[in-house]
Amino acid sequence: MQPPAAGEASFMKIRGALPLEGVPRRQTAEVQPPDAPCKTVEPGASNYFGESTMKKFLPLFVSLCGFAVAATGANAQFYKLHGADIGGGAIGQITTPLPANNFTRVNQTSTDSFGGLFSLRDHPVPWAGLEFNYAFTEYHQYYTDYNSSSAVIGTLSAKNHVHEATAAYMFHPKAHFLHPLGVEPFLNLGGGYLDFVPVDQLTNQWRGTGLVELGFDIPTSNPHMGFRVQGRELIYRQPDFNQPNLASRTWVATSEPMFGVWYRW
């Protein structure tokens, strides 16, 4: 057997530091060389739940909600909320690469998963508003490395938690044909950041993201509560966890169908 090239050896070294698990069904077992080292990482060896990141975002979101309640109750003079609401629900996560990607020798894919979304909205004017979001998902990143002959060297699996902090402008189009149905459509445009927190020894990585949301609110007999159905789209570059040999430079679109509830003051 010929010794691997420098780049291959470096990728194999990274593989040896991570758990190889759950190779996708569309890939065969031959992507894992029999002589490839594999070191199992104990769950306790890392910050499994991404506690440091959650400590950053969760207090921020709770503070925003507390501000909304305090501002409404005290009728704060520096900012008065206008039909503000808080909402939450379950989201699905489906990530696909965008066309015309400049792929490197590393091909990167992600598994599908579920997560949660929490939002704070305010409407300074009837036809527009502001939205602040926090979301959490958990899934695997798969990296498949190829040599100069396009032969598969191996596949690496990295489980990560993803924390989203985004904001968007809200627009309420006048859709008269929806009025008989009693629904309130909206279109949101914005962006923010995603924090990818790996379960293993790799370091977390931030990525900027664009955000597009399209959906509608469904009022109920209670004027303060209702349901929310929407589709979300996040556009960003896949993480490499600051490892040059994992850099696929792949731009992806993550689609997130969401169903939840809202409470309005």
Describe the structure.
This protein is mainly beta and 265 residues long. The protein has a single domain, classed as Porin (Beta Barrel), CATH 2.40.160. Helix content is 13%, strand content 48%. The chain has two helices and nine strands; from the N terminus they run ααβββββββββ. An eight-stranded antiparallel barrel has the order 1-3-4-5-6-7-8-9. It is elongated. It starts with 5 loop residues before the first helix and ends with a strand. Mean pLDDT is 77; it is low at 6-10, 16-53 and 71-76.
Give the terminus-to-terminus CA distance.
70 Å
The figure for the number of domains is 1
Kindly state the percentage of residues in helix.
Answer: 10-25%
Q: For the record, what CATH class applies?
A: Mainly Beta
Task: Give the overall shape, derived from the CA principal axes.
Answer: elongated
How big a fraction of the residues is strand? over 45%
Report the CATH architecture: Beta Barrel
Number of strands: 9
Main sheet specs = 8 strands, antiparallel, barrel
Spans where pLDDT lies below 50 across 5 or more residues: 6-10, 16-53, 71-76
- Strand arrangement within the widest β-sheet reads 1-3-4-5-6-7-8-9
Number of contiguous helices: 2
CATH topology description: Porin
Please provide the ordered H/E string of secondary-structure elements: HHEEEEEEEEE
